[in-house]
Amino acid sequence: MAELTNLESKLGEVVGLAMAAQEAGQKVAKLAADDGNEELVGKLEQMREEAQETEARGTEVAGSFDGKKTAILDEAREVKGKAQEMMKTYLDQASDALDGLEFLTMAEAGEVGHWEILDTLNKRAAKSEVATLVDWALPIQKRHLETVRSASLELAADEDPNEPA
Question: Is residue 165 pLDDT above 90, yes or no?
């Protein structure tokens, strides 16, 4: 297997997080649907579609690294697996939409951080394909974070703080 640079490894990580985000969005959308929150379901579906597009674009950029696409995508799959394990640990049978949004808030914050690190690494590497991808994806990731953060605060505001958990 080809040895990856820090930049290539980070690209694999953001692609893997985009892969995992699709499953997480689907899981939380089901929790929101179970709670009857169709507006939230729509937002989560849009986020899932954007994660799918991010994966596709990231995979395309991975192909621009000569002889490294397979290794970058192996890294992506490894990160996806780790993220899936985190989700399984955090969200159980008793989880509701607020629990799901709390998980997504952590996940989206992590994605924003990874994209910002990729951007910082690319300042020196100066790979135009990576710069174009980051310029497209980072604002979307920041919007995703704000979407789940504000939705979780809305749901939390509806909770009775004195009701048994």
Answer: no
